[in-house]
Amino acid sequence: MANWTDCLNFGISLCKQASEVVLTAFQQQKDVKLKSSPADLVTETDQRVEKILIAAIRNRYPEHRFIGEESVAAGERVELTDHPTWIIDPIDGTVNFVHRFPFVAISIAFAVNKQTEFGIVYSCVEDKLFSAQRGRGAFLNGAPLHASGQEDVSRCVVVTEIGAERDDLALSTLTSNIFRLLKLPVHGVRALGTAAVDMCQVAAGGADAYYHIGMHCWDIAAAAIIVKEAGGVVMDTDGSEFDMMSRRVIAASSDAVANRIAQVIQAFPCRRDDEDSDKCVCGAPSVNGV
Ligand code: LIP
Predict the structure, then answer these.
(1) Residue nearest to atom 16 of ligand 1 (CA)
(2) Which residues contact 255 (CB under 8 A, 6 or more apart)?
(3) Interatomic CA distance for residues 150 and 164, integer angstroms
(4) Do 252 and 225 form a contact (C-beta atoms < 8 A)?
(5) Domain end: 89, 111, 144, which one?
(6) What is the domain range of residue 112?
(7) 195 lies in a domain?
(8) Relative to the CA of 128, which of 12, 104, 223, 243 has its CA 20 to 30 Å away?
């Protein structure tokens, strides 16, 4: 079995270097542009950090491939092949970054033969580096991470997001999901504004579940392996196997909690990340298990 530890260590060193650019810009005025909605923001720093990461990786591993949030926004296709591929979100939590809300992360996943080999989520302001390599456990700043193992959903803190969508169907689906969870009841619902850091709370045991519909592969690919290597469960919101391109995810402390959440929440239709943008996606929300 190939050993990708050198790539992991290189990725960690790059996150630390790139975080200096993020943290300097965090305190400064920002030039903000809109992408898919009035809440889907991008700054020059997002683009600059992604360019720095890709250039450094390409220099060291010229045959590797990339899926980067801002490269895709600039028109590149999302194509996960068997080639070694780095899946990069240069700033996860861009709205937080613009507002100086202190949860912003660099997220880097690495996949070979379409299987994630490692993930790195560096929460820059907190200086918390979450990492995991397939089969070798999950860590926070080098200390082992363990999910809570909670099996009773009524004893859970659940993390989710109201993402960038502002259409009625998405908002009514997302807010009714929160309503149904609170009526179970669960102990609480939280949102940090960054899917990657949200999911890492499940790996760290500070939250017992995370779910979201509408995020992208670069938001969650790294955190998904961190949750799994911390003993957590990651699946699609319909209870099927996790698919990082589907734009739907549940990460949880146990199968019992994950499956209970899959029964309660609905998903609105989203075009897959790897689906050509000219394909139309429409239809009523799918109701999972109820
Ligand atoms: C963000 C996600 C977050 C979601 C936001 C946005 P970005 O990623 O991490 O969970 O609610 O809409 O998609 O755009 O900051 O990299």
Answers:
(1) 92
(2) 233
(3) 30
(4) no
(5) 144
(6) 5-144
(7) yes
(8) 243
Q: 215 and 116, same structural domain? A: no
Q: Does any ligand 1 atom lie closer than 6 A to the CB of residue 92? A: yes
Indicate whether 278 pLDDT > 80: no
Q: Which atom of ligand 1 is nearest to the CA of 39?
A: 12
| In-domain check, residue 88 | yes
Q: Which residues are catalytic?
A: 69, 89, 91-92, 94, 219
Query: How many angstroms does the Cα of residue 94 sit away from the middle of ligand 1?
Result: 7
Residue 93 Cα to ligand 1 midpoint, Å, equals: 5
What pLDDT was estimated at residue 276? 79
In a domain, 290, yes or no: no
Q: What is the mean pLDDT of residues 105-130?
A: 98
Tokens coding 120 = 């790195």
**Single residue among 99, 123, 144 that ends a domain in this structure:** 144
Radius of gyration of the chain (CA): 18
Q: pTM of the predicted model, to two decimals?
A: 0.94
- Distance (angstroms) between ligand 1 centre and the Cα of 95 equals 8
Nearest in space to 265 (alpha carbons), one of 150, 187, 164, 186: 186
Peptide bond into 185 cis (omega under 30): yes
| Ligand 1 neighbourhood includes 93 CB (under 6 angstroms) | yes
| Residue whose CA lies nearest to ligand 1 atom number 12 | 163
**Residue whose CA is closest, atom 15 of ligand 1?**
93
Share of the chain above pLDDT 70, in %: 94
Which run of H or E residues covers position 234? strand 233-235
